[in-house]
Write a structure and sequence with these properties.
Blueprint lengths: L13 H11 L2 E7 L4 H10 L3 H7 L4 E7 L3 H9 L7 E10 L15 E11 L8 H72 L1
Parallel strand pairs: 1-2
Antiparallel strand pairs: 1-3, 3-4
Helix pairs in contact: 2-5
GO biological process, one term: ERAD pathway
GO cellular component, one term: endoplasmic reticulum
GO molecular function, one term: ubiquitin binding
Length: 204
């Protein structure tokens, strides 16, 4: 058999992966396995290496973080994600965080501060049965047919808003620099005029 190919895994801590997903507006795939669980081994060797799933998770809008719960950090992540059966996969991404609305007229002005939210969770035998290939295809179809179309418009708007704010900051900085140069030039002209007048006065 040929060498198995895995999706590119993020090298770093879980918190770093979350931060990267926020900064780069990616969908973060959290993969947790248990070395003591036979389904986890099948998932790692077959489901996770299925070409259809690898292709999707290798796209630039995805970030994959994985760990086994025998490791301290992965165990803590399992607790955070409330993962109780393995293998476990969750997809998270920035979503608007809505606060309670004080009145019906506040709907458009409700808080929309982005925060990481769980988009979907998958665990246990559903990730390896009826066969790993079928499980991988179902996961791939879930991502391409449902999850990405649902989350991508918001991430695109968020990216456009970030770009707009960055552009505005750059423009303000450019305008401030131009104003500062003009002010310095004005000061220099006033100083030169005074010095010239002083010299004329001394000559007279």
């Amino acid at each position: 058999p040929g060498r198995r190919t895995y999706p590119p895994l993020f090298v770093g801590s879980y918190s770093q992966a979350c931060q990267r997903a926020k900064e780069e507006l990616k969908v973060l795939a959290i993969i947790l396995t248990s070395i003591d669980n036979p389904h986890s081994d099948i998932f790692r060797r077959q489901t996770l290496t299925d070409p259809s799933l690898v292709e999707v998770l290798s796209r630039p809008d995805f970030l994959v973080w994985a760990g086994d719960i025998r490791e301290r950090e992965a165990w803590q992540v399992a607790d955070i994600c409330d993962a109780t059966s393995f293998p476990f996969v969750a997809f998270v991404s920035l979503q608007p965080s809505r606060t309670s609305r004080s009145s019906s007229s506040s709907a458009s002005s409700s808080s929309m501060t982005p925060r990481l939210a769980v988009l979907s969770r998958h665990s246990g035998t559903s990730l390896v049965k009826p066969t790993p290939a079928v499980a991988a295809r179902q996961l791939q179809e879930h991502l391409t047919g449902l999850l990405v179309p649902r989350v991508q418009p918001y991430l695109a708007r968020l990216g456009a808003e970030r770009a707009r704010l960055t552009s505005e900051r750059a423009l303000r900085a450019k305008q401030d620099a131009a104003y500062e140069r003009a002010a310095q030039a004005d000061v220099a002209r006033v100083r030169a005029r005074r010095e010239a007048e002083q010299r004329r006065g001394e000559e007279e």
